[in-house]
Design brief:
The chain has 611 residues and is mainly β. The protein contains 5 helices and 34 strands.
Length: 611
Amino acid sequence: MPQQPSSGARRPTLPFLALLLAAAVGARAVRAAPATALDPIVVTPTATALSLADVPAPVIVITRREILESGALDLVQLLRFYAGVDVAQTGGPGQPASVFLQGASSGQTLVLINGVEVNGGNLGLAPLADIPLTDVARVEIVEGPSSSLYGSDGIGGVIDIVTRGNARRLHAHVAVADGSYGTRSLDVGAADGGRRFAAGADFSRTLVRGFPPLVGSGIDAATTESLLNAFARWRPSARGNLVARLWQSRGTTGYLNYGGAPRSENFRDRLVLLRGRLRVATGLHARLTLSDDENRLLQNQRPDFSRTRREGIDARLSFTRLPAQRLLVGVALHHQHDSSLVYGTAYDQGFRVLAPYAEDIVTTGRNRFVVAGRLSNYSTFGTHPTWSLADSYRWPSGTSLGVEWGTGFRAPPAEDLYGYGGNPDLAPESSHTLEVVARQWLGNDARLGLNLYLSRVNNLIVYLGPSALDPEGINENIGRTQTRGASLSFAWSRRPWNLLARVDVQQPLDLETGTVLARRSERSASLLLGHRLAGGEIGVDLLAVGPRPDSPYTTVIDPGYVLTDLNGRWPLWAHLTLGVRVGNLLGVHYTVVSGYRTAGRSILVGLRWDL
């Protein structure tokens, strides 16, 4: 197997020269404004806490309260009501799901849990349908390239799912829910903590009888899922802390094969994380993360299986002693092992990745410059550099403007390297993206945002059909795509109302064929409206999606649709809360993937007791 890439990648001279230049800049600091609901503190875009107004990338923040108000049980249900975040699922709950950001494919979207990658290595896809929301504290979605900080798969963006990891007092809860399609769930959890030590655990189990995923079938596809999420945090002194986390989702998913026969598979997604932080000296902080991630599928009627095991170390230092500057340097090392057996094609392969990275944030007046670079060395194909350059400016009038130019990449997944049509000589898919982000705060209770972007992806891995030279066909780096897009958003919060509206227009094109990329909507709009009343909340979620090509292999166009969800929460007495969610309120018949059914009108009723 060749160890050096033929592309050889140019040395990333520009970003590292910019890092050196930024390090030489002396400037006065701008005092950060306190966080508000419309100007929250976000961490994922720059790996440091910054106000949204100072972040040059477009970010969607979904808080714990918004998760509870949505009534969604899993990540797929939550994300689909945000225009520009295209979600496709082949059937009901538990069935395979994909997410598309800024025209990028699902494999080009990085999903993190507590900052650690959970994309599987065989296809490069994240287990979106296996991520319940019972103990999720926050979701941050960064649109645009994120490879400079997080490595492979961050072409379209990154979705960071943050689970609960601290407690300052005793808290316990029990929640039950029952609803359409045989949906039943139980969630129990408790946490307690003080100044030095905190610990907690949450366990949930969900059963869904489901509905026939294939059009024309009468066979339901059931799902059972159990989630265990636990943490322990120790703070021996004011200088540092140590936190351990366990997140595990496991269960059984039923599905129908291409012939319509019922099948099932067992899944397990597990993440073990140990993270320590230490203030070494004034202005100098260290962080060390050890992680062990596993993604496993086991087919019950056949010997087929898929498994990824990833063990990682991430060490970083943050320097803030220089005036108005924060310099972050780190190195990530992980070993990944992928194995699979699918329809007789088997492989069992491992590789390692060593990736030094750096990011410099410099404030001069009202400007904030962000420069980042990463050098990822894979034992399979060699070295691939990524970088990003960004600047944001914040006016006293409440206007902020950000510009970012960056690159991203996706390492070839194991299935493309060693599976059917596999080619061990594949190079990474790579991208260049230019983004402009403008935000205008209208007083303290409204924000208007506009994001313009242009992204080009080269070296796309494309399967070429059988030939005399390759009877099984072969994967090659010959594809190219381009996406132009614009997103307009409006957020408003004034008691007792809150509103989030977003319109997304994009042109995701396959440059080789001139056709629109499959399952990406060129036009979409969403509106989330909430109202507090009598100690509770009631809300309505609207989503409008335009027509989309169903597949690159057919001429089928999936028609546009409009969805409406109604949700509410009301306190009954003491610590007991009633929650109701009516999905697809108007009973719209719509198609996300041709040949697969979608849910009709449904209702979910839940009770939650909090201590």
